[in-house]
Amino acid sequence: MSTEPDFSHLGADPVVPVRPRNLSDRFWAAHEVLAEIRRTARARMVCPDSVLGVLLARTAGFLDPRHLYVDTGVDDRTSLNLIVANVGQPGISKSQSSALGRRLLPSREFPHVRLGNAGSGEGIAEAYMGEVETGKTTKAGKPITERSQVRHSAFLEADEGELIAKLGERSGSTLGATLRSTFTGAPLGQMNATKERQRDVRNYALGLALSFQPETLRPLLAEAAQGTPQRLLYLSAADPSMPPPARQEVAFGTAEPPAPTPSCQGLTERLVANVQAAIGVPASITFFPDVVYEVRTQRHLAHTEALPDQNPLDGHRTLLRLKVAALLTILLGDVKPGPNVVSERTWELSGELLDVSCNLRDALVEQARADERGRVEAGVQRHIDREVRTDHAKHVAKVERLAKRVRKHAAQAGAGGLPLSGRDGLPRRFDNRERGLLGEALDHAVNAGWIKTDQVRVYGGEVGELPPGASRAMRE
Fold first, then answer.
1. pLDDT confidence of residue 1
2. DSSP calls for 273-287
3. pLDDT interval class at 470 (50, 70, 90)
């Protein structure tokens, strides 16, 4: 059975022009914090898009859902949990993007957050668990503890998404289901497990930053029917418009030390303060009326089964955009204690982020389809070539068998030879199915030196007599 992902359920290949897969200059110029993130990333030769993705995921994981409420117009407790997939070829500095994200939004300023590596569905739930004292003691006076949810915030990452894809394929793995649950903030864990493995996680914040090569992402993209890839924000780790580095022209032997990389301390302090402002005191985030109307209209169309045909991978686009808009509002420092409304500018920025994400995702799906077609076509061609070789071998063997019979009949005819036509001629020794190959058999026998012909009769030696150059098969 093939283990290659199947993308046929995603419909026919769309015929669309190439769409932007990176955020525009206009996006980065829309806010001074965004402009500084871009400048800092490029100073370190990494893609600003992927750095922003890591920062959004870290922001999502650093929040405290018990104090921050997001009202989308249909749900007053919308989860801001976010899964970001940074995608790029090997050697394109995906890990450096993660490292810069850690430096710009350091976890030491958020001690309530659990950090770790994403490895399995059970592991994600376990990030929130711990031991708590029950207030009881053993006979020896030792406090009795029990497993319980001890934290509400976690940021997890995986430097190579192939690990996630492979674990997701493991029989019985809960990773895919857990990723889908975290997107909506649904409870995590297993209550039917043993006491040591029971987990019941609720009201939690999660940021998940994954790095993928295009090929390693394909098993996850193929889970469209289950709804997994619809819940991810995809950002490119490549920056095609990155300016080339400036070369310092100096005389040989007089080079001065290179200029130091610009400090990012100021940006770090600002981002930390912005995120802490959304954690320290109760706050709420809402959206302006036009957005609420759009959200409620989409929900109504879904209930009445009147949604227009759309890309199957866009099923959670609206909710994902709401999350991104709220997280951008926090990261850019626009959240204060009490009620907050996402600005129209930030809503537009979230729209471009989602457009770029969908464009990149669709390009990855199309490339996967193209590679799959290539594999299928190559397999068909190999099958055809194999069949042709087999048929040719069968044909050669049949001609050789007929040539041996021609040699035998010519030898039995004696010195006078055997006519090539007529009632007593050579063709009469063969049935109708064999006569079509008789010409090839005669040529084969002549070339092998078994017989001679004057175009009227065929002459052969004694039966069993073979010339020195005859093949081993002819001696059998």
1. 41
2. HHHHHTTSS-EEEEE
3. very low
> In this predicted model, what pLDDT tens digit does every residue of 249-278 receive, in sequence order?
665 566 666 667 778 899 999 999 999 999
Using DSSP bridges, classify how beta strands 451-453 and 457-460 pair: parallel, antiparallel or unpaired.
antiparallel
The amino acid that residue 277 corresponds to is A
Q: What is the pTM of this model?
A: 0.76
CB 46 within 8 A of CB 100: yes
Strand partners of residue 149: 129
Pairing of strands 143-149, 129-137: antiparallel
pLDDT tens digits, one per residue of 184-195: 888 887 654 455
Separation CA 367–CA 217 (nearest Å)? 12
Q: How many CB atoms lie within 10 A of CB 67?
A: 15
Is the four-CA dihedral 34, 36, 40, 42 of positive or negative sign? positive
Q: Over the stretch 212-229, which tens digit does the pLDDT of each residue have?
A: 888 888 888 888 888 888
Q: Which residues contact 6 (CB under 8 A, 6 or more apart)?
A: 222, 372
Residue 317, token pair as written in the block: 């686009």
Give ∠ CA 318-280-115 in degrees, rounded to 5: 70
**What is the pairing mode between strands 232-236 and 114-117?**
unpaired
- What SS3 state is found at 6? coil
Instruction: Say which DSSP state 139 is in.
Output: T
Angle between helices 94-104 and 32-43 (to 10 degrees): 130
Return d(Cα 98, Cα 95) in angstroms, integer.
5
Q: Nearest Cα to 294, choosing from 239, 370, 347?
A: 347
